Records
---
Amino acid sequence: MIRFLEKPRSEDVFSPWVNAGILVLEPEVLSFIPEDVPYDFGREVLPSLLASGASVYGYRMTEGLWWADSPEDLERMRQSASAGRLSL
């Protein structure tokens, strides 16, 4: 990966790919996170890793992606599961 931008504005989008929020990290990544302050992986940790020259890799999912960011999303997932349309 050479570039990462969390939740870009429409005019800043440079790729059709999105961050699914599942991370697997080496322990050394913890050194990029300051103690006792909130720190965001998408907006701070991953861009800092890239800026330092660290190797960052992604997995291009072909599986279905389901999310539940709201009560409406959760209900949609429940209905899909009940109808047998929810598959991973």
---
Amino acid sequence: MKEPASHQTPSTPGRVSTLELFFDLVFVFTITQLTALLANNLTVATTLRAMLMLALILWMYGGYAWLTNSVAPTTRFRRSLVLIGMGGFLAISLAIPDAFGSTGWLFGLGYFVVNAVHSGLFVASGGPGAARVMLTGVGPPNLVVALLALIGGFLPGPWRVGLWLLGVVIVIVVPYVSPIGGFNITPSHFVERHGLIIIIALGESIVAIGAGVVGQHIDLFLVLVAVLGLSVSYLMWWVYFGGDDIRAEHALGAIEPARRGRAAVEAYGWAHYFLLLGIVFAAAGVKKAVGHPVGHVTLAQALVLAGGVSLYLLGDVWFRRVLRIGQLRYRAIGAIAVILTVPLGLLYGVAQLIALNVLLMAMLYREGRAASRRRDLADEVEQPAT
């Protein structure tokens, strides 16, 4: 007799465990630090540095998501190694504010630890198939990237930037030259894990609202501005979830195993980079808007707010396009339309927040109406003639 489909062995992931959620909370601290870095110094140089750090960090977070998708942290040995990996991510987070200055060594060391734990746990616990893929596929390039991060952390500015940029180039190329098709992806666990990281990151954007209010006199107008910021975060949540997380799980499961790894890299790697980068930018922009409830914001502050929402929508379009779920047209139009709110921010900061809310709600409404019409047409076609 066959085992029920829901049966999980001790080494097979089911749903996301509380330890993985705990790990994600530590990882999202890096998102908080990147948001604070941007909010405190909104310059082109700081923005590019935040983008570079997020690319490196997210690659290794993705590695842990793939790891626990294949190897459930059910034993004391595995849980202990995951804890060490959490410590590495914490070190990276603490180093972020001055990673291109005095704490670059800590960023590099933390990154190397995170990589070493990931590779070691995969080889030790992932079985012959996972070990073979790690040793002959992504493992050696990952080690090179970790060494570049470590060495770069001890070198002066231009060398550090150059080595870390080279690391990002390698992580972009690796999935297209390594046999990632050998990884066995469990769609239910994989989709849930990445959905949780999005919702936790959005939660951190709400913390940014609270940080923006600190030190200000609380009145009804300030509360209104804070609620508008919360509403932007809520609508961003709706964009990603909105009932489509189940569709994403089914879509990923419908892809043949040999191609599923490549699709997972694009949908939950590159597309999620822009989703998370959009959250970082938008959170920094909302923090500044709430911090200046009366009057206008600067051009940089208005751009980072609108640009963050735009990047988030573009990332969602890429994500859905890879998995072939949902509609793309209205979200692509929305990604362009939100940029048009920048002049409003230059006149009156709260006006930009109102405009963003109106545009996102209109986009979702039109999308819902279009989906409803398609369902009605499908029902008419399926209805038997009388």
---
Amino acid sequence: MTPHKSNPTQEDKTMRDFVISVNSTIDMPKEWLAERGIPVLPMKYTIEGETYTDMEGLSSKEFFDRLRAGQMSVTSQVNPEEAKEFYEPFLKEGKDVLHLAFSSGLSGSYNSMVLASRDLAEEYPDAKIIVIDSLCACLGEAVLLQKVLKLREEGKNIEDIAAWVEQNKLNVCHVFTVDDLHHLQRGGSVAKAAATIGTALNVKPILFMNNAGGLEKLGKERGRKKSLNKLVELAVEKSGSWDNDIVMVTHGDCLEDAEYTASQLKEKLGVPEVYVNNIGTVIGTHTGPGIVGVFFMGEKR
């Protein structure tokens, strides 16, 4: 998708400093992001009538324990006014912005970011705001950010980095499994009857992020261990010629399963580093506890 931006001069293109920003759905520790100077626009969720900010609200353990107890969580997207308030301080400092937005296939937040960038382009005609629909979620966004940070370290400018992201974002693969189909059913990903039958039969779906940035079922396995092994198999199969220096694993309060998956990835994929982190509360709202996901660069999704 074409980035949205104003029309700066050639001098602005080569001289202006820029920030790289993300949404909280990147699900990386806020301390890690702060150390690298990555501003984060958080999303919010409401549970039992109380609204929390992603990364600032309930801990992962508290959140998933409440879901296990039957409490319901509902998320809300970023609105254009929030996006404008987020961008504007950087523009006032004379900086451009490259924003890696949460997948438009899962949220309307990307559209809000675009609307805000268009409004601000009129107020700050010398500035550039490039909003990229990452078509990624969770640690898939983090894999993309890792690549972007390396490009910035190499001295690439904002236009070059944006072009690389557009060319390669569909090579960021997301494969995952969930332990309880009912959370996906509430989000509309599976039918209620299928969720009830599948849960009773211990069927674990294997899902992936498709090229439209939405979730799609890839298959199913009987039993938890088989489903985790399938994620590893898919990572080996899909990686192809990509030399993954890091693979990421997320989990919904099931660290032991995530660590098992990470150990299998190191063995089967030969990757030097596997980063494990818990899934955030916004995305966790839709997956429920027990999700395990693997994120890596591959030939195709």
